Fold this sequence. Notes:
There is one protein chain. This protein is an alpha/beta fold. The chain has one domain (11-344): 3-Layer(aba) Sandwich (Peroxisomal Thiolase, Chain A, domain 1). It is built from 9 helices and 14 strands. The protein has helices at residues 36-40, 47-54, 68-83, 106-112, 129-142, 166-169, 226-247, 265-275, 296-306, and strands at residues 19-29, 33-35, 58-60, 90-94, 119-123, 148-156, 174-184, 192-199, 207-208, 223-224, 257-260, 315-322, 326-333, 339-343. The chain is globular.
Amino acid sequence: MSASCLGKSARSNSGERASAVIAGLGTCLPSHSVDNAALVEVLDTSDEWIRTRTGIESRRRVTPETSTLDLACEAARNALRSAGIDTVDGLVFATTTPERPCPAAAPEIAYRTGQGNILAFDISAVCSGFLYALATAGALITAGTADSVLVVAAETYSRIVDPRDRSTAVLFGDGAGAVVLRAGPADEPGALLAHDLGSDGSGADLIRVPGVREQPSGERWFTMSGRKVYLRAVDRMADSVRRVVKDCDWSIETLDMLVPHQANARIIEALAKRLGLPPERAVCELARIGNTAAASIPLALAGAVTTRRLTPGARTVLTAFGGGLSWASTGLIWPQLAAVTSEV
């Protein structure tokens, strides 16, 4: 989008200020799968221990030839195919595992997917990154800065997780997901109705990768204080979901589907119980792909759409909790669309 287009007032066909509407959904997974049996060979663990504590049976991992960018670009292309369009006005990319600290990856994703000289930037909010990016992209549309935005999340946690650490090596997988947002009326299915975003820097050390100054030499692996994270994740996501449900003028009882960050099955089960939701109303797609951090919500959405657990018209809340500490939730009526998925 040219600079002359910036600042235009986004309007729906009725003339009202536009909302941001989800119009396309795409994902990409590495084709290489690592099951629990493969991890049991190198870790002091068992298939039963992994399944009962995480709900994970296998996870996808990239080969050395595949980059975070490769996954991101393929997911972005698939989202565009799902939306039936070729180009957008902007791109927001969420990741904790970029190929490099500088420059941002979003402009290269835009270039590699044929978007031209559009606005493009990265967001880092760990597992909350997709929802932070979704809220930011939605604000670009409602402000009139863009009429359409790609929101992409991609992770290759297999490159930052210590393969000898049982507490993290069994959890994480690689993958990417993306949605297309476009301007549309607030009462259209797919419109983003409410957001709740928050953070608590007092817990910054609970989920972290040491920096160069902290650890100038040697290995710098991802670490997580599992029990403390579990307790805070359930508390913060439950409160955040309640706020979004209230802002949407719904009630928990009328919520059709909860799509949480796919951390582990125990957190998802505890969150549903805390909210008083039947377990079947909380999407859990962990078994075959594991925890994919920022990419987990779009991947979970695609899985739920493909299996028809998530259907058009469903009152839906997306929620996440991650490093920072950070959390986020978004409410919408799920639209009619088909997810486009692929592997690399």
